[in-house]
Structures are given as C-alpha cells and as structure tokens.
Amino acid sequence: MVATIRYEDIVKVPKALLHDHLDGGLRPATIVELAAEVGHELPATDPEELGRWFVAAADSGSLERYLETFAHTVAVMQTASALRRVARECALDLAADGVVYAEVRFAPEQHLERDLSLDEVVEAVLAGFAEGSAEAAATGHPIRVGTLLTAMRHAARSQEIAELAVRHRDSGVVGFDIAGAEAGFPPTRHLDAFEYLQRENFHFTIHAGEAFGLPSIWQAIQWCGADRLGHGVRIVDDITPGAEPVLGRLAAYVRDKRIPLELCPSSNVQTGAVGSIAEHPIGLLRDLRFRVTVNTDNRLMSGTSMSREMALLVDAFGYGWSELRWFTINAMKSAFIPFDQRLRIIDEVIKPAYAELVD
Ligand SMILES: O=c1[nH]cnc2c1ncn2[C@H]1C[C@H](O)[C@@H](CO)O1
Ligand SMILES: [Zn+2]
C-alpha cells in the first residue's frame, strides 16, 4: 500500500498548514537579489549554494544556533516592497505545493530597521499574501493564507504586537504567537498580552515544548490559555511508554481538550528536539489520537515543503492516504478562521479529493 503513494500525488492532494514562518521560507534566489539591493553580505551568493548553507547551518542540534540563521532573512525584509515580494512568493510556493489553507507567521518587530512602522509592516505582508493568492487562484491553485503575528519571547513588545494583531483582524490577521529561544523565556512573561487577547476573543498559539519540556507546555495552556501548541512535541515526556501507554495529567488534558499540536518533524530533528524522523513522537501521538497536525516550520532552513514532510512520514511510519487525510482534516479543524469557513474547506475541498484515494 505504502509503495503506491508517490511524491507527486502527495503534491496534488489538498493540504493544510498551520505552522510556517514567513522569514523561514524565502526563496534563496530572492534572498540573493534583495541582499544585493540593500548591501547585505551573505554566506553565499549562488542561490543553490545559499539554500544548502541554510540547511547545513540550521542543522546544528540547538534551537539557539538554528535561530541565528534568521539574521540573513530578516536583514533583507526591511522595506515594504521586500516584505510584499516575500509574502507573494510564499503564497505562490505553498499553493504550487498543493497547500489550500496556510497560516503563516512572522514577527513585525523584527522588520523596523529602516523606516517602517508596525502597521506598515503588516500591511505590506497582507498585500503580498493577497497578491500571491490571487495569482495562484488564476493558475488553478487556490489557496487561503491567514497571517499570525508573532512576538519575540526574549523581547518586551508582546502587548503591542497583540494589539497590532487585533487591529488587523478584519483584514487577514487571524492569530497571535510567541517564538524565539524557549529556555529562560517562559510564556508567562507575556501573560498580559495573552489575557488581553482572551478579552478580545482572539486566537493564539504559543511555541512551547520544543527546546524545553513540560513546564513550558503547562504554562502555555494553563496560565496563558493557548488555543494550540507550536510544536508541543515534548508532551511525550508526560507519557509512560509501553504496551498500554499511560498519560500523565497534562498529557491527558491536552488530549481530552483536543488541543492541536503543530508538529514540525524536520525542524525538530535539526534543533535536536528528536533524534530522527523515525524516532519522532508523532508516531506515538497519532496512535494515541492526540490532535496531531503536520507542519513545515521553516521551509528554507529545513529544505522542505508540506509535501516533503508528509512524504518523510509515509516513509518512516508507513502512513497511507487515510493518515494523510486525518492530518489534513485535523489541521483544518484547528485553523483560526471561523468555523463555517473551516468546514467549507473540509467538505468542499479536502474530503472530495481524498475520497478518491482512501478506501
Ligand atoms: O521553531 C522555532 N522555534 C522558536 N522560534 C522560531 C522557530 N522558527 C522560527 N522561529 C523564530 C525566528 C523567526 O525570526 C521568528 C518569527 O518568524 O520566529
Ligand atoms: Zn516555529
């Protein structure tokens, strides 16, 4: 059965992606061109070589070193035209890979090095997504892109970014997130922002349980009220393995409440959160029926795509179309757009496409 799943067929089926960073998904050729325009020095100027450099440099086994590579992408995303271009290309690249729904995140506070305001940064990115989505639809690859605004957890601008997200909620910003180095920067540092967002009936996810374990996940959910967990892979630390795995109280809570896990297999291997794709807890978490979703995190740093992440899981775990459909519907159910709109994509786009493949 597994042998019948071909990569090109995975590309063709509709996929939903909840965890993808705008500044982690640039085309290498675009980085080279934008860097030349602003005089930013890169580790390589041949696009293919630069692409390889990113993957190798991010392959460090440490989240902190992985994050250092973003200096080169953030440096070339400091003008409205660069942001708009990168967002347009992101929508086009995801659509060409068969992604029909994507939530793409970035941290506006990292794009203020020239003369843009926070609102101008967001407007440029939203314009790029709209442009790319319209072009993709015109070529037969419709995609809906929702934007998540991220605040950097080591910084102190989360309240401001949360307010920015709410200000743009009717023009494409569908959620909020915190990201950056996890150890030493617990989610509760940003409690004011999360409490504000709850009062605004807004949605948010929190990067937690990636480089740091259960306390981070516990805070994200029980103190901050996160709707979803960015990664959350370390929830396995609260599961005693065996013929009948035993869930601790936090793992049981996450599963009982159907809290979505935004798992990012390749990224986790690169940052050392897990040893290999085959050892990735996604196998166990799926067997235990957690609300598992599959994500890219940073397509540039991992040299990956949504189809490739799924293909890696097919190879490692022998998954077939029914598992790929399950991941896709899980993601779509967990999206931050309104319920009726999620349902429409599930019923009109995802289910009909997989119906032909799943027996
Ligand atoms: O996997 C990640 N964990 C924590 N932070 C991350 C990850 N991937 C990207 N980031 C950071 C670096 C980016 O500059 C920032 C906003 O997208 O988010
Ligand atoms: Zn991430």
UniProtKB/TrEMBL annotation:
<feature type="binding site">
    <location>
        <position position="21"/>
    </location>
    <ligand>
        <name>Zn(2+)</name>
    </ligand>
</feature>
<dbReference type="InterPro" id="IPR032466">
    <property type="entry name" value="Metal_Hydrolase"/>
</dbReference>
<dbReference type="GO" id="GO:0046103">
    <property type="term" value="P:inosine biosynthetic process"/>
</dbReference>
<feature type="binding site">
    <location>
        <position position="180"/>
    </location>
    <ligand>
        <name>substrate</name>
    </ligand>
</feature>
<dbReference type="InterPro" id="IPR006330">
    <property type="entry name" value="Ado/ade_deaminase"/>
</dbReference>
<dbReference type="Pfam" id="PF00962">
    <property type="entry name" value="A_deaminase"/>
</dbReference>
<dbReference type="GO" id="GO:0043103">
    <property type="term" value="P:hypoxanthine salvage"/>
</dbReference>
<feature type="binding site">
    <location>
        <position position="21"/>
    </location>
    <ligand>
        <name>substrate</name>
    </ligand>
</feature>
<keyword id="KW-0378">Hydrolase</keyword>
<feature type="binding site">
    <location>
        <position position="207"/>
    </location>
    <ligand>
        <name>Zn(2+)</name>
    </ligand>
</feature>
<keyword id="KW-0479">Metal-binding</keyword>
<dbReference type="GO" id="GO:0008270">
    <property type="term" value="F:zinc ion binding"/>
</dbReference>
<feature type="site" description="Important for catalytic activity">
    <location>
        <position position="231"/>
    </location>
</feature>
<dbReference type="GO" id="GO:0046936">
    <property type="term" value="F:2'-deoxyadenosine deaminase activity"/>
</dbReference>
<dbReference type="GO" id="GO:0004000">
    <property type="term" value="F:adenosine deaminase activity"/>
</dbReference>
<feature type="binding site">
    <location>
        <position position="23"/>
    </location>
    <ligand>
        <name>substrate</name>
    </ligand>
</feature>
<feature type="binding site">
    <location>
        <position position="19"/>
    </location>
    <ligand>
        <name>Zn(2+)</name>
    </ligand>
</feature>
<dbReference type="InterPro" id="IPR028893">
    <property type="entry name" value="A_deaminase"/>
</dbReference>
<feature type="domain" description="Adenosine deaminase">
    <location>
        <begin position="14"/>
        <end position="351"/>
    </location>
</feature>
<dbReference type="InterPro" id="IPR001365">
    <property type="entry name" value="A_deaminase_dom"/>
</dbReference>
<feature type="active site" description="Proton donor">
    <location>
        <position position="210"/>
    </location>
</feature>
<keyword id="KW-0862">Zinc</keyword>
<dbReference type="GO" id="GO:0009117">
    <property type="term" value="P:nucleotide metabolic process"/>
</dbReference>
<dbReference type="GO" id="GO:0009168">
    <property type="term" value="P:purine ribonucleoside monophosphate biosynthetic process"/>
</dbReference>
<protein>
    <recommendedName>
        <fullName>Adenosine deaminase</fullName>
        <ecNumber>3.5.4.4</ecNumber>
    </recommendedName>
</protein>
<comment type="function">
    <text>Catalyzes the hydrolytic deamination of adenosine and 2-deoxyadenosine.</text>
</comment>
<feature type="binding site">
    <location>
        <position position="297"/>
    </location>
    <ligand>
        <name>Zn(2+)</name>
    </ligand>
</feature>
<dbReference type="GO" id="GO:0006154">
    <property type="term" value="P:adenosine catabolic process"/>
</dbReference>
<keyword id="KW-0546">Nucleotide metabolism</keyword>
<dbReference type="GO" id="GO:0005829">
    <property type="term" value="C:cytosol"/>
</dbReference>
<comment type="similarity">
    <text>Belongs to the metallo-dependent hydrolases superfamily. Adenosine and AMP deaminases family. Adenosine deaminase subfamily.</text>
</comment>
